[in-house]
Write a structure and sequence with these properties.
The chain is of the alpha/beta class. It has 18 helices and 20 strands. The strands form 5 sheets. Strands 1, 2, 11, 12, 13, 14 and 20 form a 7-stranded mixed beta sheet that branches.
Length: 535
Amino acid sequence: MAALGSSQNPYDAIVVGGGHNGLTAAAYLARAGKKVLVLERRHLVGGAAVTEEKYPGFKYSVCSYVVSLLRPWIIRDLNLTQHGLRLVPLECSYTPQPDDAGLCRWADPDKNRREIQRLSRKDADNYPEFGKLMGKLARFAKPFIDEVAPDPTSLSPSDLWQLKKAGDRFKELGDDLAALQFKLTTMGGVDFLREFFESDQLIAPMSCSGIIGTMLGVNSPGTAYVLLHHYMGEIDGSSRAWGFPIGGTGAVSEAIASSARSFGAEIRCEAPIAKVRIAHGEATGVILENGDEIASRTVVSGCDPSLTFLRFVGEEHLPTDFATSLKRYKDRGSSGKVNLALDRFPEFKHRPGIGPHVMGDVAIAPSTDYLETAYDEAKYGTFSSRPFINVVFPSVLDPGMAPPGKHVMSCFVQYAPYDIATGPETWPEHREAFGDAVVDTLAEYMPTLKEDILHRQVLSPWDIQEEIGITEGNIFHGELGLEQLLFQRPTAGWARYKTPVRGLWLGSSGAHPGGGIMGSPGAMAVQEMLRLGAV
Protein backbone atom coordinates (compact mmCIF):
# COMPACT_ATOMS: atom_id res chain seq x y z
CA MET A 1 0.00 0.00 0.00
CA ALA A 2 2.86 2.42 0.60
CA ALA A 3 3.65 2.39 -3.12
CA LEU A 4 0.09 3.49 -3.83
CA GLY A 5 0.11 6.26 -1.29
CA SER A 6 -0.33 5.95 2.44
CA SER A 7 -1.38 8.38 5.14
CA GLN A 8 2.33 9.02 5.76
CA ASN A 9 3.19 9.35 2.05
CA PRO A 10 0.03 10.31 0.18
CA TYR A 11 -0.27 11.37 -3.40
CA ASP A 12 -0.71 15.08 -3.95
CA ALA A 13 -3.67 14.25 -6.18
CA ILE A 14 -5.62 11.24 -7.36
CA VAL A 15 -7.44 11.74 -10.65
CA VAL A 16 -10.56 9.59 -10.91
CA GLY A 17 -11.19 8.63 -14.52
CA GLY A 18 -8.70 8.46 -17.37
CA GLY A 19 -10.75 10.31 -19.97
CA HIS A 20 -9.04 13.05 -21.93
CA ASN A 21 -9.92 15.70 -19.32
CA GLY A 22 -8.71 13.57 -16.42
CA LEU A 23 -5.47 12.90 -18.27
CA THR A 24 -5.09 16.60 -19.03
CA ALA A 25 -5.52 17.43 -15.35
CA ALA A 26 -2.93 14.80 -14.43
CA ALA A 27 -0.46 16.15 -16.98
CA TYR A 28 -0.76 19.70 -15.65
CA LEU A 29 -0.45 18.57 -12.05
CA ALA A 30 2.64 16.47 -12.81
CA ARG A 31 4.07 19.31 -14.86
CA ALA A 32 3.77 21.45 -11.71
CA GLY A 33 5.84 18.88 -9.82
CA LYS A 34 2.99 17.14 -8.04
CA LYS A 35 2.79 13.43 -7.27
CA VAL A 36 -0.21 12.23 -9.28
CA LEU A 37 -2.08 8.96 -9.76
CA VAL A 38 -4.75 8.42 -12.43
CA LEU A 39 -7.24 5.60 -11.82
CA GLU A 40 -9.19 4.31 -14.83
CA ARG A 41 -11.88 1.63 -14.57
CA ARG A 42 -11.38 0.25 -18.10
CA HIS A 43 -8.43 -1.57 -19.66
CA LEU A 44 -7.40 1.54 -21.61
CA VAL A 45 -7.43 5.29 -21.10
CA GLY A 46 -9.58 7.73 -23.00
CA GLY A 47 -13.15 7.46 -21.69
CA ALA A 48 -15.35 8.43 -24.63
CA ALA A 49 -12.27 9.32 -26.72
CA VAL A 50 -10.93 5.85 -27.44
CA THR A 51 -9.83 3.78 -30.42
CA GLU A 52 -10.49 0.06 -30.20
CA GLU A 53 -10.03 -2.88 -32.57
CA LYS A 54 -13.39 -4.58 -32.10
CA TYR A 55 -12.97 -6.62 -35.31
CA PRO A 56 -9.58 -7.91 -36.52
CA GLY A 57 -7.73 -5.25 -38.49
CA PHE A 58 -10.46 -2.59 -38.14
CA LYS A 59 -10.08 0.27 -35.65
CA TYR A 60 -13.12 2.15 -34.41
CA SER A 61 -13.26 5.60 -32.85
CA VAL A 62 -15.83 4.09 -30.55
CA CYS A 63 -17.70 7.15 -29.22
CA SER A 64 -16.24 10.61 -29.92
CA TYR A 65 -14.98 10.72 -33.48
CA VAL A 66 -13.86 14.24 -34.52
CA VAL A 67 -11.81 17.04 -32.92
CA SER A 68 -12.17 20.78 -33.14
CA LEU A 69 -12.10 22.49 -29.77
CA LEU A 70 -8.90 20.92 -28.39
CA ARG A 71 -7.29 24.07 -27.12
CA PRO A 72 -4.09 25.17 -28.90
CA TRP A 73 -2.51 26.29 -25.62
CA ILE A 74 -2.99 22.81 -24.18
CA ILE A 75 -1.38 21.25 -27.26
CA ARG A 76 1.60 23.57 -26.74
CA ASP A 77 1.86 23.25 -22.95
CA LEU A 78 1.75 19.45 -23.02
CA ASN A 79 3.90 19.06 -26.16
CA LEU A 80 1.21 16.87 -27.68
CA THR A 81 2.63 16.88 -31.20
CA GLN A 82 5.88 15.45 -29.80
CA HIS A 83 3.77 12.75 -28.15
CA GLY A 84 2.24 11.70 -31.46
CA LEU A 85 -0.81 13.94 -31.92
CA ARG A 86 -1.61 14.48 -35.60
CA LEU A 87 -4.84 16.01 -36.86
CA VAL A 88 -6.01 16.08 -40.47
CA PRO A 89 -8.69 18.62 -41.41
CA LEU A 90 -12.13 17.59 -42.60
CA GLU A 91 -12.27 19.19 -46.04
CA CYS A 92 -15.98 18.98 -46.74
CA SER A 93 -19.43 18.59 -45.24
CA TYR A 94 -21.67 16.58 -47.55
CA THR A 95 -25.46 16.27 -47.25
CA PRO A 96 -26.77 13.69 -49.74
CA GLN A 97 -30.37 13.63 -50.92
CA PRO A 98 -32.33 10.46 -51.73
CA ASP A 99 -33.06 11.63 -55.30
CA ASP A 100 -30.17 13.88 -56.29
CA ALA A 101 -26.50 14.67 -55.65
CA GLY A 102 -27.22 16.75 -52.57
CA LEU A 103 -25.06 19.55 -51.21
CA CYS A 104 -21.35 19.79 -50.45
CA ARG A 105 -20.03 22.64 -48.35
CA TRP A 106 -16.35 23.11 -49.08
CA ALA A 107 -13.45 24.91 -47.43
CA ASP A 108 -12.77 26.64 -50.78
CA PRO A 109 -15.11 29.70 -50.91
CA ASP A 110 -15.35 29.79 -54.72
CA LYS A 111 -16.15 26.10 -54.94
CA ASN A 112 -18.63 26.50 -52.10
CA ARG A 113 -20.38 29.39 -53.83
CA ARG A 114 -20.86 27.40 -57.03
CA GLU A 115 -22.29 24.49 -55.03
CA ILE A 116 -24.80 26.53 -53.00
CA GLN A 117 -25.77 28.57 -56.05
CA ARG A 118 -27.43 25.47 -57.49
CA LEU A 119 -29.96 25.76 -54.66
CA SER A 120 -30.22 29.51 -54.24
CA ARG A 121 -28.28 32.49 -55.58
CA LYS A 122 -29.36 34.48 -52.53
CA ASP A 123 -28.00 31.80 -50.18
CA ALA A 124 -24.73 31.65 -52.12
CA ASP A 125 -24.35 35.40 -51.59
CA ASN A 126 -25.33 35.25 -47.91
CA TYR A 127 -23.28 32.22 -46.88
CA PRO A 128 -19.85 33.93 -46.66
CA GLU A 129 -21.41 36.97 -44.97
CA PHE A 130 -23.08 34.71 -42.42
CA GLY A 131 -19.72 33.05 -41.80
CA LYS A 132 -18.11 36.44 -41.14
CA LEU A 133 -20.84 37.41 -38.67
CA MET A 134 -20.59 34.12 -36.81
CA GLY A 135 -16.82 34.39 -36.82
CA LYS A 136 -17.04 37.75 -35.07
CA LEU A 137 -19.42 36.32 -32.48
CA ALA A 138 -17.10 33.34 -32.01
CA ARG A 139 -14.23 35.70 -31.25
CA PHE A 140 -16.44 37.31 -28.60
CA ALA A 141 -17.38 33.93 -27.10
CA LYS A 142 -14.05 32.11 -27.40
CA PRO A 143 -12.41 33.70 -24.31
CA PHE A 144 -15.14 32.09 -22.21
CA ILE A 145 -13.83 28.60 -23.03
CA ASP A 146 -10.27 29.59 -22.13
CA GLU A 147 -10.92 31.09 -18.71
CA VAL A 148 -12.86 30.15 -15.59
CA ALA A 149 -16.58 30.87 -15.69
CA PRO A 150 -17.51 34.43 -14.67
CA ASP A 151 -19.42 34.70 -11.40
CA PRO A 152 -22.10 37.37 -11.78
CA THR A 153 -22.81 37.38 -8.02
CA SER A 154 -19.23 37.97 -6.87
CA LEU A 155 -17.86 41.31 -5.73
CA SER A 156 -14.20 40.24 -5.70
CA PRO A 157 -11.89 42.46 -7.80
CA SER A 158 -10.84 39.60 -10.08
CA ASP A 159 -14.44 38.58 -10.78
CA LEU A 160 -15.53 42.16 -11.38
CA TRP A 161 -12.59 42.66 -13.75
CA GLN A 162 -13.50 39.50 -15.66
CA LEU A 163 -17.10 40.65 -16.01
CA LYS A 164 -15.92 44.10 -17.13
CA LYS A 165 -13.76 42.54 -19.86
CA ALA A 166 -16.73 40.47 -21.06
CA GLY A 167 -18.90 43.62 -21.06
CA ASP A 168 -16.27 45.53 -23.02
CA ARG A 169 -16.10 42.75 -25.60
CA PHE A 170 -19.89 42.81 -25.87
CA LYS A 171 -19.89 46.59 -26.44
CA GLU A 172 -17.31 46.16 -29.18
CA LEU A 173 -19.75 43.94 -31.08
CA GLY A 174 -21.93 46.95 -31.88
CA ASP A 175 -25.72 47.06 -31.86
CA ASP A 176 -26.29 44.74 -34.82
CA LEU A 177 -24.02 41.94 -33.62
CA ALA A 178 -25.25 42.35 -30.03
CA ALA A 179 -28.81 41.84 -31.28
CA LEU A 180 -27.66 38.80 -33.24
CA GLN A 181 -26.00 37.40 -30.11
CA PHE A 182 -29.28 37.84 -28.22
CA LYS A 183 -31.15 35.97 -30.96
CA LEU A 184 -28.63 33.14 -30.75
CA THR A 185 -29.42 32.64 -27.08
CA THR A 186 -33.19 32.60 -27.49
CA MET A 187 -34.12 31.20 -30.91
CA GLY A 188 -34.36 27.75 -32.39
CA GLY A 189 -31.67 26.86 -34.88
CA VAL A 190 -33.97 26.64 -37.90
CA ASP A 191 -35.71 29.97 -37.22
CA PHE A 192 -32.37 31.67 -36.72
CA LEU A 193 -30.94 30.28 -39.96
CA ARG A 194 -34.07 31.24 -41.91
CA GLU A 195 -33.25 34.87 -41.23
CA PHE A 196 -30.27 34.37 -43.56
CA PHE A 197 -31.12 31.51 -45.92
CA GLU A 198 -34.08 30.27 -47.94
CA SER A 199 -33.02 26.78 -49.07
CA ASP A 200 -34.19 24.04 -46.71
CA GLN A 201 -31.46 21.76 -48.10
CA LEU A 202 -28.88 24.18 -46.72
CA ILE A 203 -30.68 25.07 -43.49
CA ALA A 204 -31.25 21.44 -42.45
CA PRO A 205 -27.60 20.32 -42.16
CA MET A 206 -26.55 23.66 -40.69
CA SER A 207 -29.20 23.38 -37.97
CA CYS A 208 -27.88 19.98 -36.83
CA SER A 209 -25.01 21.67 -34.99
CA GLY A 210 -27.53 22.98 -32.47
CA ILE A 211 -28.90 19.60 -31.38
CA ILE A 212 -25.79 17.47 -30.90
CA GLY A 213 -25.90 15.90 -27.45
CA THR A 214 -29.23 17.44 -26.46
CA MET A 215 -32.77 16.12 -26.23
CA LEU A 216 -34.01 19.05 -28.28
CA GLY A 217 -35.17 19.47 -31.85
CA VAL A 218 -33.88 21.83 -34.52
CA ASN A 219 -36.85 24.12 -33.84
CA SER A 220 -36.43 24.12 -30.04
CA PRO A 221 -35.61 27.53 -28.48
CA GLY A 222 -31.97 27.87 -27.45
CA THR A 223 -30.51 25.49 -30.03
CA ALA A 224 -29.28 28.40 -32.13
CA TYR A 225 -26.60 29.16 -29.54
CA VAL A 226 -24.92 25.78 -29.96
CA LEU A 227 -24.43 26.61 -33.67
CA LEU A 228 -21.78 29.03 -32.48
CA HIS A 229 -19.56 26.17 -31.33
CA HIS A 230 -18.96 25.19 -34.96
CA TYR A 231 -17.43 28.60 -35.50
CA MET A 232 -15.18 28.37 -32.43
CA GLY A 233 -13.17 25.37 -33.55
CA GLU A 234 -9.59 25.64 -34.71
CA ILE A 235 -6.83 23.34 -35.89
CA ASP A 236 -3.26 24.60 -36.28
CA GLY A 237 -4.47 28.19 -36.14
CA SER A 238 -7.16 27.67 -38.79
CA SER A 239 -10.50 28.85 -37.41
CA ARG A 240 -13.78 26.99 -37.92
CA ALA A 241 -11.79 23.83 -38.63
CA TRP A 242 -12.73 20.30 -37.63
CA GLY A 243 -10.33 17.41 -37.90
CA PHE A 244 -9.77 13.72 -37.54
CA PRO A 245 -6.89 12.45 -35.38
CA ILE A 246 -4.57 10.00 -37.09
CA GLY A 247 -5.16 6.77 -35.17
CA GLY A 248 -8.69 7.79 -34.15
CA THR A 249 -9.77 9.80 -31.14
CA GLY A 250 -7.99 7.37 -28.86
CA ALA A 251 -4.76 8.81 -30.25
CA VAL A 252 -5.63 12.15 -28.61
CA SER A 253 -6.03 10.45 -25.24
CA GLU A 254 -2.85 8.43 -25.71
CA ALA A 255 -0.86 11.58 -26.58
CA ILE A 256 -2.10 13.31 -23.41
CA ALA A 257 -1.36 10.18 -21.36
CA SER A 258 2.14 10.02 -22.81
CA SER A 259 2.67 13.67 -21.91
CA ALA A 260 1.41 13.08 -18.36
CA ARG A 261 3.78 10.14 -17.91
CA SER A 262 6.69 12.21 -19.23
CA PHE A 263 6.05 14.69 -16.40
CA GLY A 264 5.98 11.85 -13.86
CA ALA A 265 2.26 11.01 -13.55
CA GLU A 266 1.32 7.42 -12.75
CA ILE A 267 -1.60 5.91 -14.68
CA ARG A 268 -3.31 2.73 -13.59
CA CYS A 269 -6.00 0.98 -15.66
CA GLU A 270 -8.51 -1.64 -14.51
CA ALA A 271 -8.73 0.18 -11.20
CA PRO A 272 -12.38 1.14 -10.65
CA ILE A 273 -13.15 3.14 -7.55
CA ALA A 274 -16.15 2.57 -5.30
CA LYS A 275 -16.03 5.77 -3.26
CA VAL A 276 -14.17 8.98 -2.67
CA ARG A 277 -12.92 8.62 0.89
CA ILE A 278 -14.38 11.40 3.07
CA ALA A 279 -13.21 12.32 6.56
CA HIS A 280 -14.73 15.29 8.43
CA GLY A 281 -16.10 16.75 5.18
CA GLU A 282 -12.79 16.47 3.33
CA ALA A 283 -11.69 14.17 0.50
CA THR A 284 -8.66 12.20 1.72
CA GLY A 285 -8.30 9.66 -1.09
CA VAL A 286 -10.32 6.90 -2.70
CA ILE A 287 -11.58 3.41 -1.95
CA LEU A 288 -11.28 0.97 -4.85
CA GLU A 289 -13.95 -1.60 -5.66
CA ASN A 290 -11.57 -4.31 -4.40
CA GLY A 291 -11.46 -2.57 -1.00
CA ASP A 292 -7.99 -1.01 -1.31
CA GLU A 293 -7.71 2.51 0.06
CA ILE A 294 -5.34 5.05 -1.48
CA ALA A 295 -4.54 8.29 0.32
CA SER A 296 -4.15 11.67 -1.34
CA ARG A 297 -4.20 15.31 -0.37
CA THR A 298 -6.72 16.11 -3.11
CA VAL A 299 -8.99 14.25 -5.50
CA VAL A 300 -9.85 15.43 -9.01
CA SER A 301 -12.83 13.81 -10.71
CA GLY A 302 -12.74 13.40 -14.47
CA CYS A 303 -16.18 11.78 -14.29
CA ASP A 304 -19.58 13.32 -14.88
CA PRO A 305 -21.22 15.29 -12.03
CA SER A 306 -23.96 12.75 -11.32
CA LEU A 307 -21.50 9.87 -11.02
CA THR A 308 -19.02 11.97 -9.05
CA PHE A 309 -21.34 13.36 -6.41
CA LEU A 310 -24.34 11.06 -6.17
CA ARG A 311 -22.38 7.80 -6.35
CA PHE A 312 -18.70 8.32 -5.52
CA VAL A 313 -19.28 10.93 -2.80
CA GLY A 314 -22.80 10.18 -1.63
CA GLU A 315 -25.64 12.52 -0.83
CA GLU A 316 -24.93 12.22 2.89
CA HIS A 317 -21.69 14.20 2.40
CA LEU A 318 -23.27 16.99 0.33
CA PRO A 319 -25.14 20.16 1.30
CA THR A 320 -28.86 19.67 0.76
CA ASP A 321 -29.23 22.47 -1.81
CA PHE A 322 -26.26 21.20 -3.82
CA ALA A 323 -27.59 17.63 -3.85
CA THR A 324 -31.02 18.90 -4.90
CA SER A 325 -29.49 20.87 -7.77
CA LEU A 326 -27.49 17.83 -8.89
CA LYS A 327 -30.65 15.73 -9.05
CA ARG A 328 -32.11 18.30 -11.44
CA TYR A 329 -28.99 18.27 -13.63
CA LYS A 330 -29.92 17.12 -17.13
CA ASP A 331 -27.81 14.21 -18.30
CA ARG A 332 -30.47 13.03 -20.80
CA GLY A 333 -28.44 10.89 -23.15
CA SER A 334 -29.95 11.26 -26.62
CA SER A 335 -27.34 9.86 -28.98
CA GLY A 336 -26.06 6.48 -30.05
CA LYS A 337 -23.16 5.28 -32.15
CA VAL A 338 -22.88 2.69 -34.89
CA ASN A 339 -19.43 1.66 -36.15
CA LEU A 340 -19.11 -0.45 -39.28
CA ALA A 341 -16.28 -2.56 -40.72
CA LEU A 342 -16.70 -2.69 -44.50
CA ASP A 343 -15.47 -5.03 -47.20
CA ARG A 344 -15.31 -2.11 -49.65
CA PHE A 345 -16.26 1.56 -49.80
CA PRO A 346 -20.06 1.93 -50.03
CA GLU A 347 -20.39 4.57 -52.75
CA PHE A 348 -23.13 7.17 -52.67
CA LYS A 349 -25.81 6.63 -55.28
CA HIS A 350 -25.71 10.15 -56.71
CA ARG A 351 -22.03 11.00 -56.03
CA PRO A 352 -20.12 7.78 -56.68
CA GLY A 353 -16.46 7.17 -55.99
CA ILE A 354 -14.08 7.96 -53.16
CA GLY A 355 -13.80 11.65 -53.91
CA PRO A 356 -13.33 14.89 -52.00
CA HIS A 357 -16.98 14.76 -50.90
CA VAL A 358 -16.15 11.97 -48.43
CA MET A 359 -12.98 13.59 -47.06
CA GLY A 360 -15.03 15.22 -44.32
CA ASP A 361 -18.29 14.45 -42.59
CA VAL A 362 -21.55 13.35 -44.16
CA ALA A 363 -24.84 14.53 -42.64
CA ILE A 364 -28.01 12.54 -43.22
CA ALA A 365 -30.28 15.55 -42.83
CA PRO A 366 -32.28 15.92 -46.04
CA SER A 367 -34.80 18.43 -44.65
CA THR A 368 -35.82 20.24 -41.48
CA ASP A 369 -39.08 18.28 -41.42
CA TYR A 370 -37.06 15.05 -41.49
CA LEU A 371 -35.04 16.21 -38.48
CA GLU A 372 -38.09 17.35 -36.54
CA THR A 373 -39.83 14.03 -37.18
CA ALA A 374 -36.79 12.23 -35.80
CA TYR A 375 -37.08 14.36 -32.65
CA ASP A 376 -40.83 13.78 -32.35
CA GLU A 377 -40.29 10.03 -32.16
CA ALA A 378 -37.67 10.44 -29.42
CA LYS A 379 -39.96 12.69 -27.37
CA TYR A 380 -42.30 9.75 -26.96
CA GLY A 381 -39.63 7.32 -25.87
CA THR A 382 -38.39 5.51 -28.95
CA PHE A 383 -35.34 5.79 -31.17
CA SER A 384 -35.78 7.62 -34.47
CA SER A 385 -36.79 5.24 -37.24
CA ARG A 386 -35.05 7.53 -39.74
CA PRO A 387 -32.50 9.40 -37.63
CA PHE A 388 -30.10 12.23 -38.14
CA ILE A 389 -26.75 10.55 -38.77
CA ASN A 390 -23.35 12.20 -38.92
CA VAL A 391 -20.93 9.95 -40.80
CA VAL A 392 -17.14 9.99 -41.06
CA PHE A 393 -15.03 7.50 -43.00
CA PRO A 394 -11.87 7.29 -40.83
CA SER A 395 -10.12 4.88 -43.23
CA VAL A 396 -10.35 7.43 -46.06
CA LEU A 397 -8.61 10.02 -43.88
CA ASP A 398 -6.22 7.52 -42.24
CA PRO A 399 -5.68 4.26 -44.17
CA GLY A 400 -4.21 2.66 -41.04
CA MET A 401 -7.71 2.40 -39.56
CA ALA A 402 -8.57 -0.62 -41.77
CA PRO A 403 -6.82 -3.32 -43.82
CA PRO A 404 -5.86 -2.41 -47.42
CA GLY A 405 -8.93 -2.01 -49.61
CA LYS A 406 -11.28 -2.18 -46.61
CA HIS A 407 -12.94 0.64 -44.70
CA VAL A 408 -14.45 1.70 -41.40
CA MET A 409 -17.47 3.93 -41.07
CA SER A 410 -18.28 5.97 -37.98
CA CYS A 411 -21.96 6.90 -37.49
CA PHE A 412 -23.08 9.31 -34.76
CA VAL A 413 -26.84 8.89 -34.42
CA GLN A 414 -29.57 11.09 -33.02
CA TYR A 415 -32.04 10.41 -31.57
CA ALA A 416 -31.60 7.46 -29.25
CA PRO A 417 -33.09 8.45 -25.90
CA TYR A 418 -31.61 6.87 -22.79
CA ASP A 419 -35.06 7.02 -21.21
CA ILE A 420 -36.64 4.70 -23.75
CA ALA A 421 -40.34 4.21 -22.96
CA THR A 422 -39.88 0.59 -21.89
CA GLY A 423 -37.07 1.55 -19.49
CA PRO A 424 -33.33 2.10 -20.06
CA GLU A 425 -32.55 -1.43 -18.92
CA THR A 426 -34.49 -2.77 -21.95
CA TRP A 427 -32.06 -1.19 -24.43
CA PRO A 428 -30.32 -4.55 -25.04
CA GLU A 429 -33.64 -5.81 -26.42
CA HIS A 430 -33.83 -2.86 -28.85
CA ARG A 431 -30.15 -2.45 -29.70
CA GLU A 432 -30.10 -4.43 -32.95
CA ALA A 433 -33.35 -2.87 -34.17
CA PHE A 434 -31.74 0.52 -33.56
CA GLY A 435 -28.70 -0.59 -35.56
CA ASP A 436 -30.99 -1.82 -38.34
CA ALA A 437 -32.75 1.56 -38.49
CA VAL A 438 -29.39 3.27 -38.95
CA VAL A 439 -28.21 0.89 -41.67
CA ASP A 440 -31.59 0.96 -43.44
CA THR A 441 -31.51 4.76 -43.50
CA LEU A 442 -27.96 4.88 -44.83
CA ALA A 443 -28.72 2.27 -47.48
CA GLU A 444 -31.17 4.69 -49.09
CA TYR A 445 -28.13 6.75 -50.04
CA MET A 446 -25.52 3.95 -50.39
CA PRO A 447 -27.24 1.01 -52.11
CA THR A 448 -24.46 -1.57 -51.57
CA LEU A 449 -23.98 -0.81 -47.87
CA LYS A 450 -25.76 -3.85 -46.43
CA GLU A 451 -23.75 -6.32 -48.48
CA ASP A 452 -20.51 -4.47 -47.70
CA ILE A 453 -20.79 -4.82 -43.89
CA LEU A 454 -18.39 -7.29 -42.28
CA HIS A 455 -19.05 -6.28 -38.68
CA ARG A 456 -21.00 -3.66 -36.78
CA GLN A 457 -20.82 -2.26 -33.28
CA VAL A 458 -24.04 -0.69 -31.98
CA LEU A 459 -23.97 1.50 -28.88
CA SER A 460 -27.11 2.91 -27.28
CA PRO A 461 -26.84 5.51 -24.49
CA TRP A 462 -27.37 2.63 -22.04
CA ASP A 463 -24.40 0.78 -23.56
CA ILE A 464 -22.22 3.88 -23.29
CA GLN A 465 -23.21 4.20 -19.63
CA GLU A 466 -22.46 0.55 -18.89
CA GLU A 467 -19.24 0.24 -20.94
CA ILE A 468 -17.68 3.71 -20.68
CA GLY A 469 -19.17 4.70 -17.33
CA ILE A 470 -20.94 7.93 -18.29
CA THR A 471 -24.32 8.64 -16.71
CA GLU A 472 -27.14 8.12 -19.21
CA GLY A 473 -24.54 7.79 -21.96
CA ASN A 474 -24.27 11.54 -22.56
CA ILE A 475 -20.69 11.91 -23.83
CA PHE A 476 -20.80 15.63 -22.99
CA HIS A 477 -21.38 14.76 -19.30
CA GLY A 478 -24.70 16.60 -19.37
CA GLU A 479 -26.63 18.61 -21.91
CA LEU A 480 -25.12 21.79 -23.32
CA GLY A 481 -28.29 23.83 -22.85
CA LEU A 482 -27.92 27.45 -21.80
CA GLU A 483 -29.18 26.63 -18.31
CA GLN A 484 -26.19 24.27 -17.88
CA LEU A 485 -23.36 26.42 -19.24
CA LEU A 486 -20.92 29.01 -17.89
CA PHE A 487 -21.53 29.82 -14.18
CA GLN A 488 -24.34 27.24 -14.01
CA ARG A 489 -22.26 24.20 -14.96
CA PRO A 490 -22.79 21.91 -13.14
CA THR A 491 -24.76 24.13 -10.73
CA ALA A 492 -24.89 27.80 -9.87
CA GLY A 493 -22.23 28.73 -7.35
CA TRP A 494 -20.01 25.72 -8.09
CA ALA A 495 -18.77 26.35 -11.63
CA ARG A 496 -15.11 26.91 -10.76
CA TYR A 497 -14.08 23.30 -10.33
CA LYS A 498 -14.07 23.54 -6.53
CA THR A 499 -16.82 21.49 -4.87
CA PRO A 500 -18.65 21.54 -1.50
CA VAL A 501 -16.36 18.70 -0.38
CA ARG A 502 -13.00 20.14 0.67
CA GLY A 503 -10.15 18.69 -1.34
CA LEU A 504 -12.44 17.41 -4.14
CA TRP A 505 -12.35 19.10 -7.54
CA LEU A 506 -14.37 18.55 -10.71
CA GLY A 507 -12.30 18.61 -13.91
CA SER A 508 -14.55 16.84 -16.39
CA SER A 509 -16.81 17.81 -19.29
CA GLY A 510 -19.53 18.30 -16.66
CA ALA A 511 -17.63 21.40 -15.56
CA HIS A 512 -17.16 24.66 -17.46
CA PRO A 513 -16.81 25.06 -20.44
CA GLY A 514 -18.46 21.73 -21.22
CA GLY A 515 -18.23 18.80 -23.61
CA GLY A 516 -16.25 17.98 -26.68
CA ILE A 517 -12.60 17.02 -26.95
CA MET A 518 -11.17 20.32 -25.73
CA GLY A 519 -9.26 19.57 -22.49
CA SER A 520 -10.20 22.92 -20.94
CA PRO A 521 -12.11 21.59 -17.90
CA GLY A 522 -9.19 19.42 -16.78
CA ALA A 523 -6.57 22.08 -17.45
CA MET A 524 -8.45 24.95 -15.85
CA ALA A 525 -9.37 22.90 -12.79
CA VAL A 526 -5.66 22.47 -12.13
CA GLN A 527 -4.99 26.14 -12.79
CA GLU A 528 -7.52 26.99 -10.08
CA MET A 529 -6.05 24.41 -7.69
CA LEU A 530 -2.57 25.84 -8.14
CA ARG A 531 -3.76 29.46 -7.96
CA LEU A 532 -5.47 28.78 -4.63
CA GLY A 533 -2.60 26.69 -3.29
CA ALA A 534 -4.96 23.75 -2.89
CA VAL A 535 -2.46 21.12 -3.98
